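Researcher: Re-running this chain for the archive, since the previous output was lost when a drive failed. Same request as before.
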Amino acid sequence: MPLIASIVFYFISSIWAVGYVVRPNRFKTGLIRLFVYIGFAVHSGYLVYLCVKAGNIPVANIYQSIVFLVWCTVLVFIVVDFLYKFTAISAFLMPFATVFAISALFFVNNELVMPADLQKFWLISHIIPTFMGYASFSIAFVASIMYIIQQKQLRSKFSGSLLTGLPSLEGLDRLIWRTLTFGFPLITLGMVFGFMWVNSSNVLGVPWYTDHKVVLGIVSWLVYAAILHIRMIAAFHGAKIAILTICGFVLILFTFIGTFFLGVKHGFQKATDNVALENVQTDN
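Model: Regenerated structure tokens:
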């Protein structure tokens, strides 16, 4: 399976990236990028295959959704690495992406699928900006973890190898800010298109705003809006913003994964239930 091949290359890049953080002089960044690029190329080819097979963006089930989100995350990482040369972030992001990709394998034969009505939605206008926003927040998340680790080492005057491979606090703070300000407009755009659709089509029923995923999506948006507001108005920097960013991303993960299993229409349903619902609608 192509996804497994991608996971292998992502895993190798993770090991090499951790080695780079611990021993920068012994592990070169070129190999990290090489393994990431090869894994991403295989991943991209597989995603194209899923797109052609589905005839749309491949998010019809949990497996496809995770595969697509991991692809978005690695894409944003590649762009960030190209622009800012923060290769050390791969030591934290690539293990995360690898574990997340592995989790997709547990849902290959899962019966939960997207309701037929949701598959007719403007997936390009809603899913792409939302997933790219999530991917950007994942960069901010791992950068926040790196910031806290780096700060603790500096305060303890630790001069070990881990300190050598991490970026400066100032650099990490800028990266957190840039990825937050890039991701927030994207999830805002995704939410706006989502609200326009559900309000006009009534596919989530009335009242649609009580749907679990809608509620959690709004809460997540408010959390990140508050983080950006605090960062700009109150001029908070460093550990406080990093901790809030970590908490915000945990909420994002639950919004993305947890709502699949809440049994709501916006979430995924059993394939048998979905077929039965389509038959009832056809009969009517």
